[in-house]
Amino acid sequence: MTAQDESQSVPENTTAAPRRRLHSLRRAGCLAGLAVWFVILLTPCAFFLLATQEQITITLGAAPEQALRIWLINEVKERGVGISWASVAAENETDLCVQTNTRFILWMGKADNATFCACYTRQNIADAWTPGRAYGGACEP
């Protein structure tokens, strides 16, 4: 073996350095940034859908009227967007109350935000919910 071959050969007892792994927080930051970027890219699609359908409704649960609803307001004196979401305020086997919160984002006109409560009853678990009382304001605990 020549002197040049000896200088290029790797000794047998050495190992390659392990690859550095990305820190888990750094990886999570990249994933969060990617998620934000997709939201930014899909925002025009949501506006286009809202403009063509005039409302977007997403079911949030199995209770009656429990949904997120976003709709366009195109009245003579008011223009903007309304957003409402409903959540279960009280529930047992035969009684259920759903609280709906409504907010308005208007660029023309004025509207007051609202909260109302709708309660439902049923005889047993197999029956469907039937409307009971409904009133303005938050549901009573």
In short:
This protein has 141 residues and is α+β, with helices and mostly antiparallel strands. It has 2 helices and 6 strands. It folds into 2 domains: 22-53; 55-136.
How would you sum up this structure, described in words?
The protein has two helices and six strands, in the order H-H-E-E-E-E-E-E. It is of the alpha+beta class. The chain has two domains: 22-53; 55-136. Strand 5 (114-121) and strand 6 form a beta hairpin. The termini are far apart. The mean pLDDT is 85.
Low-confidence stretches: none
- With helices defined by DSSP (H or I, 4 residues minimum), what is the helix count? 2
N-to-C order of helices and strands: HHEEEEEE
The CA-CA distance between the termini, in Å, is 89 Å
Largest sheet: 6 strands, antiparallel
Structural class: alpha+beta
What share of residues are in beta strands?
35-45%
How many distinct folded domains?
A: 2
Radius of gyration: 29 Å
What number is the mean pLDDT?
85
Based on CA inertia axes, which overall geometry fits?
flat
How helix-rich are the residues, as a percent range?
Answer: 25-40%
Q: What is the number of beta strands?
A: 6
Strand adjacency order, main sheet: 1-2-3-4-5-6
